[in-house]
Write a structure and sequence with these properties.
Blueprint (H helix, E strand, L loop, with lengths): L40 E9 L5 H9 L17 E6 L3 E7 L9 H11 L7 E7 L6 H7 L7 E5 L6 H12 L5 E4 L8 H10 L18 H16 L4 H4 L1 E8 L2 E8 L2 H8 L4 H11 L7 E8 L7 H6 L3
Parallel strand pairs: 1-3, 1-4, 4-5, 5-6, 8-9
Antiparallel strand pairs: 2-3, 7-8
Bound molecules: guanosine-5'-triphosphate and magnesium ion (MG).
Guanosine-5'-triphosphate binds next to α1.
Length: 317
């Protein structure tokens, strides 16, 4: 995270695992109010789609800052995360969501509920598909649940030939949504055009958040996410889904973060030979924190937490 310094330190939020949508700052200062008496415009944009299509990468790209973790494993995002784009004349609150998928566990079911709850009551829904994968049943399932004025985004155009982009756009046109944008969240190609379109769709409204606020993600939650991101990068198969992380103590510069796994046999993989995996994870996370952070990682077994409603409640899902 390039702007990790922006993270305030020292005050841990009460519930590290559940980022709340903050109440709109009704009387937030309107820095740089638009000139010429144009009314201020603002609104909410949800980004939805199947897992792994690049929703979080797009959010980070739009904001020019990492506010959501990213990985090549599906179901990386587990909470709704807000990112705020503020300009002199407009503010857009983007809502990143978990990938909508066929759930195999109670956790999966809750992720889907979280994602789908971000569809109603927003100004625009961005529905993302992946240019590198044929449009499938999962995409169509999501498509049926987005409003007709949703914007379709074909992402990862950097990874395919132009013909494939055209084929994907043609396939997507059958969904009869309002607009179609080919983009690469990775390189930024096409993202400017998408954002300008979203800006044009924003209604008159207040500046919901102070102009310097980029996300509602609490610091302790963010550190736990960074730990999970590094673990996602080094684990395979079922293990990524079995991992949950949470910060249990925050006495700056001391941060204690628990890594929960579902079975005793998974503990060793996460720790690594002589602690090598944990050491590497700790190092990579510290690089993204303000200097001086002392990150204390602990691995614990929370048996089958993904499948136990009480454990899911406790973990803030
Ligand atoms: N080539 C290419 N890869 C991309 C692009 N956008 C995202 N990716 C990769 O796709 C993978 C998934 O990205 P995420 O942003 O985590 O996807 P997501 O849709 O948020 O996934 P979930 O949170 O699991 O629903 C990562 O490996 C990204 O680096 C892109 O424009 N081009
Ligand atoms: Mg994501």
């Amino acid at each position: 995270m390039s702007d990790a310094d922006d993270l305030q330190t020292g005050d841990a939020p009460d519930d590290a695992d559940a980022p709340e949508r903050e109440a709109p700052a009704e009387d937030a200062p309107r820095d740089g109010a638009p000139e010429g008496g144009q009314p201020y415009r603002s609104g909410f944009v949800s980004i939805v789609g199947r897992p792994n299509v690049g929703k979080s990468t797009l959010l980070n790209r739009i904001l020019g800052r990492k506010v959501a973790i990213v990985s090549d494993k599906p179901q990386t995002t587990r909470h709704r995360i807000q990112g705020v784009l503020t300009r002199p004349d407009v503010q857009i609150v983007f809502v990143d969501t978990p990938g909508i998928h066929k759930p195999r566990t109670p956790l999966g079911e809750r992720l889907n509920v979280t994602a789908q709850s971000a569809i109603p009551d927003v100004d625009v829904v961005v529905f993302m598909i992946d240019a590198t994968q044929p449009m499938g049943r999962g995409d169509r399932w999501v498509a049926e649940r987005v409003p007709k004025d949703a914007v379709l985004v074909v992402n990862k155009i950097d990874a395919v030939k132009p013909e494939q982009v055209l084929r994907q756009l043609a396939a997507a046109a059958e969904l009869e949504l309002s607009e179609y944008f080919p983009v690469s969240a990775k390189t930024g190609e096409g993202v400017g055009e998408l954002v300008e379109h979203l800006v044009s769709r924003m209604p008159e409204g207040p500046q919901y958040f102070p102009p310097d606020m980029v996300t509602d993600v609490p610091e302790a939650f963010w550190v736990a996410e960074l730990v999970r991101e590094q673990l996602l990068a080094v684990t395979r198969e079922e293990l990524p889904h079995s991992i949950a992380t949470r910060v249990t103590e925050w006495e700056w510069p001391y941060i204690r973060c628990e890594i929960l796994v579902e079975r005793e046999s998974q503990k060793g993989i996460v720790i690594g030979r002589k602690g090598s995996v944990l050491k590497q994870v700790g190092m990579r996370v510290r690089e993204q924190l303000p200097p001086g952070a002392y990150l204390d990682l602990h691995v614990k077994v929370d048996k089958d937490w993904q499948r136990r409603p009480a454990a899911l409640d406790r973990l803030g899902f």
